[in-house]
Amino acid sequence: AGCSQFRRRKRRTCDVCGVQGNEDEPPFPVCGGCDARRYCGEACQIADWEAGHARKCQMSADWQEVLDALADDEV
């Protein structure tokens, strides 16, 4: 029971400001590029991106170029 409670809490905790949502609320959205960061809202997502997540995220510009090239080759 302890692990599942921890996971529920983690899915409702903003990685930027630390705010926690209630367990009856849906989990906070994750970064669309890496699924590793959770955000309580758009302001925290933007702040995290500007604070350096853009350089660390798997979907940074370099990765996006590779993915775009791969997608073009598949068509």
What can you tell me about this protein's structure?
51% of the residues lie in helices and 0% in strands. The protein is mostly helical and 75 residues long.
Helix-strand makeup class: mainly alpha
Beta strand %:
under 5%
Rg from Cα? 15 Å
Unreliable runs: none
**Helix count?**
3
Mean pLDDT reading: 85
- What is the helical fraction, as a range of percent? 40-55%
What is the element string, with H for helices and E for strands? HHH
Distance between the termini: 47 Å
How does the major sheet shape up?
Answer: none
Shape: elongated
- What's the count of strands? 0
Concise overview:
With 75 residues, this protein is an all-alpha fold. The chain is built from three helices and no strands. Helices cover 51% and strands 0% of the residues.
List the helices and strands and how they pair.
Layout: H1 2-10, H2 42-56, H3 61-74
List keywords for this structure.
single chain, elongated, 75 residues, mainly alpha, 0% strand
